[in-house]
Design goal:
- By secondary structure, the chain is an alpha/beta fold.
- It contains 9 helices and 6 strands, in the order H-E-H-E-H-E-H-E-H-E-H-E-H-H-H.
- The chain has one domain: 3-Layer(aba) Sandwich (Rossmann fold).
- Strands 3-2-1-4-5-6 form a 6-stranded parallel sheet, with helices on both faces.
- The longest helix has 15 residues.
């Protein structure tokens, strides 16, 4: 659960109530394709008010991304490593995942659980994970990311509906206790009743 109120999180970044705050979280690695998000964000400079994109995470792509942000004059801030993702989500209007591949992506799960509308690439396990509770776009397609984000920023009702669907979808996922129980059941099923102590 978040420890700070929405207004306090947004104040950290100088974002008022009327300026969209877009969040992405993950390792700064080429696989995450933050270059796509930066290029899309550069197009949003002309919007009034222009959204601020914040990316939480550290990794080997930091310097190339920082250079790209500067060259494009994109409204993007690299936050570095953060331990307050729940707080960041509480302050965000939209979450974005631009990865080339993912399995069961953790940030996508966190965004849906928090009821934050999500735009994500239709790769790996993401489509099965989110179902119809997120807007899915092709990987590597800056035009698709740009259009999806613009559409959601322009439609508050759709954003709210997507947030509700995300939270409802997350509520169907197994809990840690469910998962542990299923693994113990499977282990018991696969283990002979009278183990000889040999494999």
């Amino acid at each position: 659960a978040p420890r700070r109120r929405r207004a306090a999180v947004r104040a950290e970044f100088g974002v008022g109530a009327d300026r969209p705050l877009i969040l992405s979280v993950g390792r700064l690695h080429p696989q995450k394709r933050y270059d796509i998000l930066v290029d899309a964000a550069a197009r949003w400079r002309a919007r009034q008010p222009a959204p601020l994109v914040v990316i939480a995470g550290s990794g080997p792509a930091y310097l190339p991304l920082a250079a790209r942000i500067s060259a494009a004059r994109a409204p993007v801030t690299l936050l570095g490593h953060r331990t307050d993702v729940a707080d960041l989500l509480a302050g965000a209007d939209l979450a974005v995942v631009t990865s080339d591949w993912e399995a069961r992506q953790l940030f996508a799960q966190e965004a849906l659980r928090a009821g934050v509308p999500l735009v994500a690439t239709a790769v790996g396990g993401l489509p099965e994970l989110v179902g119809d509770a997120a807007v899915l776009v092709p990987a590597g397609d800056v035009d698709a990311v740009d259009a999806a984000v613009r559409d959601l920023l322009d439609d508050e009702t759709r954003r709210a509906g997507l947030g509700r669907r995300g939270a409802a979808r997350a509520a169907t996922w197994p809990t840690e206790a469910d998962t542990t129980g299923a693994l113990l059941d499977l282990y018991a099923e696969l283990t002979p009743e009278h183990s000889t102590g040999t494999w």
